[in-house]
Amino acid sequence: MAGFPVSLTDLDKFAVEDGIVYQPVSTIVSEIIRDLSPMMQQDGFTFPYTEEEVVTSSEQDSFVELQVLSADSNPMWGCQNKAEPPQFRPVYSPDGYSSDQDVCIPTENTFEAQSRGYRPDEYDSDGMTASGSESPTSSRSGSTSSDEDEDYVPLEISDDEEEAEDDDPSLKWSCRYNPSGFHTRVSPSVSKRRHGQPILWKFLHEMLMDPRYSKHIYWTNQSKGMFKFSSEHKEEIARLWGEKKGNRCVMTYQKMARSLRNYSNQKRYLVKVKRKLQYQFLTDQHMARA
DNA sequence: CGTGAGGGGAAACGAA
DNA sequence: ATTCGTTTCCCCTCAC
What we know:
Layout: E1 6-7, H1 8-17, H2 25-42, E2 45-46, E3 54-57, E4 65-68, E5 80-81, H3 108-116, E6 123-124, E7 127-128, H4 136-141, H5 159-164, E8 174-175, E9 185-186, H6 188-193, H7 200-209, E10 217-221, E11 226-229, H8 234-245, H9 253-265, E12 270-272, E13 278-281
Antiparallel strand pairs: 1-3, 2-5, 3-4, 6-7, 8-9, 10-11, 11-13, 12-13
The structure holds a DNA duplex (16 and 16 nucleotides).
């Protein structure tokens, strides 16, 4: 088990120790931040970036997820929204802050570096133990308060995934728009096959983030990805989904819910909550391992 | 009993 | 032709 999150400088160091020639992660992250900052600011988020405030967490070999931490922001979500109290903060991951971006890695070098995975053997379940490295706990605790950490669940890496490493260099994990930090990874086959097509869970997430539909669909516990359809307006959401897909027939909530139950049954993307009209996006930790 | 919601089997559909 | 993510239909259960 690797200990996450780890600092960018440590990732760089271990990658070098592994003999990987690549563009330093810290550089890549800086580029990502530079690209994302204007869009984040448009959404009312500040980005108090310093190197100490950026860490990564990941469970897939081929992917490193970026989180931004700062003293005045929620430790789980990172960024400070100027307009709202800090109960929810998106994770700005290397997905890219774009709904149509399937593969987020900007350069070939970056992609190769990520495919190798930043999980040095010196890591264990107690966290980072590599010599001379900063503890991941301390890298976070320096800028966070413990009482806000209860929702934070470090991602874990299974032995299966360890063994799968480097099986096929062409099989990279791509990722999709995910400002809430739920479900950031999509298998390559899915990514290719669904490229450009509307995806239901993604559509619902967009609805959730759109204030125009706050009466139709809304978060019941955003930090846990739980949301609810309005009983009054659920059919409207379904209709919009049908329109977006260009279905011949009018989409109904009943039919849309059937699709959501498929997600739920397969433990993909989201599950049904035992409450009326409520569902919950799955975190990476809870995603079924295909 | 009626209604609304949850649940799931099975087949069909359409894009890649 | 195949795969995958739905879509559609239909029937059942359950709670209110």
